[in-house]
Amino acid sequence: MVAIGHSDLDIFPLTLGGNTFGWTSDEAASFEILDAFTAGGGNFVDTADSYSAFADGNSGGESETIIGNWTRARRNRDEVVIATKVSRHPEFRGLAPDNIRAAADASLARLQTDHIDVYYAHYDDDETPLVESLAAFDELIEAGKIRYVAISNYSPARVREWLELAKEHGFARPVALQPHYNLVARHDYEGVLQTLAVENELAVFPYFALAAGFLTGKYRTREDLAGKQRERLTSGYFSDAGLDVVQGLREIAESRSAEISTVALAWLLARPGITAPIASASRISQLPALLDAPALALTSQEVEKLTVLSDAVA
C-alpha cells in the first residue's frame, strides 16, 4: 500500500479508472469489475462527474451513479477510496465557486455518500480567479463534503500558482496530480511538473496509462481499431515509433511471462513520483494484467530499453 501524497489515505498502487462504467461496461459488468478489483487488493477508484457524457445517449454522471449503486449494494463505502472531478459536466462547467458547490452536491448524491475522498479540479478555468476556486474547495473540506483536493490537467505554472495561493491563504494543500502520461505520451509530465510533484509531496496518478488501449498490444494496425468504441481516443497514439514501443513491451512480456499491459504499467511505476497509474477495464478478463503490475519489478535494463524506444516517440 502507498500513501496519497501527504494525506492519511493508503491505497493499492494501481487505480481503477471509472471512465468505462456506463460506457463500454453496463452496470452489471461494472459491478463484476469492481468486485474483482477489490477482491484482488485494489481499493482506489477514479471517476469524474462528466463520465461518460462523451458517449452517445449519455448526459454525464453515469459512472458516479454506478459506483454509488455498487458501494450501496456491497455496503463497503468505508473500504474504498473514491476520487471524482469537477468542471466538465455539461450542467456544471467551470470552477466558479457556486458551480463547485453545486457539482459537489450532485456528485455526492450520485455516489450515495456523505463525502468524496479526493476531489479534483478536472481542467483549469481561466475565467475564474484561481483563489476563488481554492476558497470554494476549502469550504467543502471544512464542511466535511470532501477530504482532500487535487489537480488534473493543469500547466506547471498554474500548479505552482495553486501551491503558492494555498500557502498564502492557509487553504488545504492539494494531495495529488493527475497528468496525461504513458510510454507514448511523456511531454506533459516529465520535467517541471514532475519536479513540482516530487518537491511538494504530490501523489501522481497518470491517466491514459495504457494509451487508451494502444499499449495493450491488441491494436497492431489502424485497421484493427476501425469501428471500435475507443477508435477516437486510441488512434492518436499510432505511429511507427509507437508500434516499436509496443514491440519492446511484447518482448519483455514474453521473457517475463507477463502481459504487455502489465509491463507498460510497471514502467510507469518505476518513474519518479508515480504513485498509482490509472487503468480501466471494460471486461473482468482484463483486470488480472492490471493488478499484476505493482508486483512486477522491471530490471534497470528493461526500464532503459523501453525508455529509449519511447524517446523516439516525438
Describe the structure.
This protein is α/β, with parallel strands linked by helices and 314 residues long. 41% of the residues lie in helices and 13% in strands. It contains 12 helices and 12 strands. It has an 8-stranded parallel β-sheet, covered by helices on one side. A two-stranded antiparallel sheet has the order 1-2. Helix 6 links the parallel strand 10 and strand 11. Helix 9 (240-256) runs antiparallel to helix 12 (300-311). The mean pLDDT is 95.
Summarize the structure.
With 314 residues, this protein is of the alpha/beta class.
Total beta strand runs: 12
Give, in spatial order, the strands making up the sheet with the most strands: 11-10-9-8-5-4-3-12
> What fraction of the residues are assigned to beta strands by DSSP?
5-15%
Structural class: alpha/beta
Termini separation: 34 Å
Largest sheet: 8 strands, parallel
User: What is the overall pLDDT average?
Assistant: 95
Count of helical stretches: 12
Low-confidence stretches: none
How would you sum up the global shape? globular
Helix percent reads: 40-55%
Query: What's the helix-strand series?
Result: EEEHEHEEEHEHEHEHEHHHHEHH
- Oligomer classification: single chain
Overall radius of gyration = 19 Å
Fold blueprint:
Blueprint: E1 2-3, E2 10-11, E3 15-17, H1 27-39, E4 44-46, H2 62-74, E5 81-86, E6 88-89, E7 92-93, H3 97-111, E8 116-121, H4 130-142, E9 146-152, H5 156-169, E10 176-178, H6 192-199, E11 203-204, H7 222-225, H8 231-234, H9 240-256, H10 260-269, E12 278-279, H11 287-291, H12 300-311
Parallel strand pairs: 3-4, 3-12, 4-5, 5-8, 8-9, 9-10, 10-11
Antiparallel strand pairs: 1-2, 6-7
